[in-house]
Amino acid sequence: MTTKPKMPTAHITFHDFMSLPVIFYHTLGINPYESVTNKETSSRWLLAVFLFQVINLNITFVLEWCFVYISYKNSENFVESCMVMGYIVFVIVGELKMLTVWWQKSQLNELMIEMELIFPPSDPEKQRHYLVDRYLKRCRFFTKGFACLYLVLIVTYNLFVLVQFLIRRFVLHSPTAVMAMPYTSVSPWSLDSKLGFCLMYTLQAIAGYTCTAGHASSDILIYAVLIQAIMHYDYLSRELTGLQIQAGRVRDGYEQDLKILQQLIAYHNKLLGLTEVINKVFGLPLLLNFMASSLMVCFVGFQMTIGLSVDIICKLAVLLVAEMVQIYLICYFSDLLINASLSVSDAVYNMNWIEADKRFNKMLIIIAQRAQRPVCLRATVFLDISMQTMTMFLQMTYRFFCVIRTMYQ
Fold it and tell me: What pTM, to 2 d.p., does this model score?
């Protein structure tokens, strides 16, 4: 009885890590980067989708801002204005994070090309040493989980008023059930007709998806890049720890040790350079994340403390959770990056350096000293991100919350 030969396992590629962010960007009409193996450029279709969504989003932004201005001028609808202000902040940041990809596309292209070039080769043994499969699973867990959270967020906000109307009309049989817009704003045309109402509802729903996808696509791109950077730092640490010293054992042992060490030093320098480029490319989106999330959590928290209905509170809770998770994950990944970069210094100490040549050991000291200065995510020049940043974020948010409560009272 013959058995079928086992099919070889497909090797993992760089694009397996980046597939979900690219899909999200394509729904926005953006081709985020060009890689070594994929030279796809933005087509006319992608450009048309991008222009339509950006124009529609800006129109929605202006209409919401007009509502806030009119409410402030007439000294009315304070609570509803706070809710709309939260939407406005969300729109501004979502659009800026999308446009950042356009402004820094050349730098993003260079970063992706460099990361693809140092990605582990297709050799199964080499990929096993890098533990690529483990890091890919971690990447998919976080990127898919975060993307699903933001999809739940946009579905909740786009369909909330529709579900609310259907329940009141057909379940509770309320004679006062009235259909409303998903987001409060002024309207450029009358909403009394079905056509005008449906058109306005559709445009608002599309605008809601555009800014939400703008947030999510930028963040999951950052997560995918950081997980790969952490993978490389961890691999470097394992290689240093497991380095077998040949000096004094074989002929030309010192030259062999020196050659391997030079390769590892060059690899370390490459990783340090890539980390700097990561901060240059994503520094502004990271800063926007912290500023916007602080305001959003503040506005949402204020609305949840003034006695709104249970269904509205549940709707706000989804947004609150999404914003908190967004900031937490950024701090979490930056903390992992800090620990991974510091582990290089520990690896130098833990390796079998006692048997090495003195000249070899002097080079190790230089590596260890450089690795003791940890690398982390930086929100431009204003903020070095770590788990301690989460505490600062909550403190700043609470201060904004107290200001709004005072204004309301």
Answer: 0.89
